[in-house]
Amino acid sequence: MTPMHLRKAKLMFFWVRYPSSAVLKMYFPDIKFNKNNTAQLVKWFSNFREFYYIQMEKYARQAISEGLKTADDLHVAGDSELYRVLNLHYNRNNHIEVPPNFRYVVEQTLREFFRAIQGGKDAEQSWKKSIYKVISRLDDPVPEYFKSPNFLEQLE
């Protein structure tokens, strides 16, 4: 797999945080899948999620330290620092317009982390698992144009 495949996978993250191997195979038609490259793609998404969740925890803790009282007061605007950091990471050269629902997913994730930390759940060992379950249900279908054999060339 090439750096362009990695870039495409990062862009897909705006729609899916937890893609199945079937979804991955559908959107990477130029790859002859085997155990190794399937594992590589799955690992990439795991790394994308790790970065995403680290940012969420950081910004949720920051909001608490700034005295925010309720999760509903947390809003993620298109020009917010958190949104900018995520867009820079997954869409460095602004190859695509970020789907509108991604801002909603980010806001929901941030609120879930805020509530968990505020409620002291972060003292438990696997406190993030319940958050992961909520966020996995927010995946959206990836646009059809990602299946195009020319998709990677469009990014160059």
TrEMBL record:
Keywords (A to Z) from UniProt: Developmental protein, DNA-binding, Homeobox, Nucleus, Transcription, Transcription regulation
MF terms (GO), sorted A to Z: DNA-binding transcription factor activity, RNA polymerase II-specific; RNA polymerase II cis-regulatory region sequence-specific DNA binding
Main localization category: nucleus
Record PROSITE patterns: HOMEO_PROSPERO (PS51818)
Record localization: Nucleus
GO annotation, cellular component aspect: nucleus
Prospero domain residues: 1-156
Example GO BP: glial cell differentiation
Pfam families: HPD
InterPro entries named in the record: Homeo_prospero_dom, Homeo_prospero_dom_sf, Homeodomain-like_sf, Prospero_homeodomain
Keyword Cell membrane: no
The protein's name in its UniProt record: Homeobox protein prospero
Organism: Danaus chrysippus (African queen)
Highest classification ranks of the organism: Eukaryota, Metazoa, Ecdysozoa, Arthropoda, Hexapoda
